[in-house]
Design goal:
The chain is of the alpha/beta class. It folds into two domains: 172 residues, 3-Layer(aba) Sandwich (Rossmann fold), CATH 3.40.50; 110 residues, 6-phosphogluconate dehydrogenase C-terminal like domain (6-phosphogluconate dehydrogenase C-terminal fold, Orthogonal Bundle), CATH 1.10.3660. It is 49% helix and 12% strand. It has twelve helices and nine strands. The chain has a six-stranded parallel β-sheet, sandwiched between helices. Helix 4 runs parallel beside helix 5, helix 7 packs across helix 9 and helix 7 crosses helix 11. The longest helix has 28 residues. The radius of gyration is 21 Å and the shape is globular. Bound molecules: NADP nicotinamide-adenine-dinucleotide phosphate. The site of NADP nicotinamide-adenine-dinucleotide phosphate has 27 residues, from helix 1 and strand 7.
């Protein structure tokens, strides 16, 4: 693989930035990778393990001369970081991000991006419940989607180069409109995470069931919930605060359906339950028949990421 950007600056050195650094290194996609994080502790760990080529103290310093700048901090912190780096960006550079919500990031970052700098938001659909500079791994993006959300009129060459980077890091890339992205992610990721957080909270609340019993007798379902519910609290707080409308929309529909099923259970209407479950099973079969997924355990995925 050939070098796509002479210098890449990673702002934030957690799971996603760390995995990007390792994936870029795996395929030799960057001439130099410079990184920074908010705390001296994270910067020290990153330097100690050699996560990037050069660790610097500030975001302003990190972006100097960088051809690609990736904001890999919680969604709620993107605006402040963008304001800090704006005066130091190299003309012609590309600024991107990896935030889990796109409209809020565009609104927070967009106004700071100077003329002559390309802003191409992105979101890799890959992660684990781990965070911090030691949590990244080069394979995180392999066979995962990365959604690019370029504004209308974005420079096609800059978009193509970022697409090439994500593809070379192992991902499949598609472009999507920001609002649609936020709705799709509310359905596929954000609300499911909220349900997992709630379910684990409920289980903990039922003190009759000790922790060991919950884990000992749980099938994969609940154990998967506990894993998801161990995800970073800052990141997920920001996701819900910034994807408020889509999350509340989907959550409203979810609770309506839940109430309907609750009522069917209470009133003993087995036919309603049976029909509902038959319908959802048909949806799953339809997905497999359409070649969008496989019947294999764990969706036929290679191990490691969630
Ligand atoms: P992470 O491992 O917790 O790392 C976050 C990084 O951001 C750390 O280096 C942290 O610095 C820095 N940071 C935190 N708060 C900050 C602030 N207020 N100002 C400046 N820097 C700050 O997080 P991550 O999982 O890599 O997530 C980064 C981004 O990727 C988020 O926007 C998230 O929505 C998105 N994302 C996450 C996943 C996932 O599954 N984890 C998947 C796709 C996208 P310190 O260590 O010094 O505190």
């Amino acid at each position: 693989m050939s070098v796509l950007y002479d210098r890449v600056a990673l702002i934030g050195l957690g799971l996603i930035a760390g995995s990007m650094a390792l994936a870029m290194r795996r395929a030799q996609l960057a001439g130099e990778i410079v990184g920074t994080a908010r705390s001296a502790e994270t910067r020290a760990v990153a330097a100690e393990i050699g996560l990037v080529d050069r660790v610097v103290d500030t975001a302003a310093e990190a972006v100097q001369g960088a051809d690609l700048v990736v904001l890999a901090v919680p969604v709620g912190a993107m605006g402040a970081v963008a304001a800090e780096i704006a005066p130091h960006l190299k003309p012609g550079a590309t600024v991107s991000d990896v935030g889990s919500v796109k409209r809020a990031v565009i609104d927070a970052v967009g106004p700071h991006v100077p003329e002559g700098v390309h802003f191409i938001p992105a979101h890799p659909l890959a992660g684990t419940e781990h965070s911090g500079p030691r949590s990244g791994f080069a394979e995180l993006f392999d066979n995962r989607w990365c959604l690019l959300v370029p504004a209308e009129g974005s420079d096609p060459k800059a978009v193509d180069r970022l697409r090439a980077l994500w593809e070379a890091m192992g991902a499949s890339v598609e472009e999507m409109d920001a609002d649609h992205h936020d709705l799709v992610l509310a359905v596929t990721s954000h609300v499911p995470h909220l349900i997992a957080y709630t379910m684990v909270g409920v289980a903990d609340d039922l003190r009759r069931v000790t922790d060991s019993e919950v884990i000992k007798y749980s099938a994969a379902g609940f154990r998967d919930f506990t894993r998801i519910a161990a995800s970073d609290p800052t990141m997920w707080r920001d996701v819900f605060l910034t994807n408020k409308d889509a999350t509340l929309d989907i959550l409203g529909r979810f609770t309506e359906e839940l109430f309907a099923l609750q009522r069917a259970i209470r009133t003993g209407q087995g036919d309603i339950l049976f029909d509902y479950f038959t319908h959802t099973r048909a949806i799953r079969r339809g997905i497999i028949q359409a070649g969008q997924d496989t019947d294999a355990p764990d969706f036929g995925r290679a191990k490691k990421a969630n």
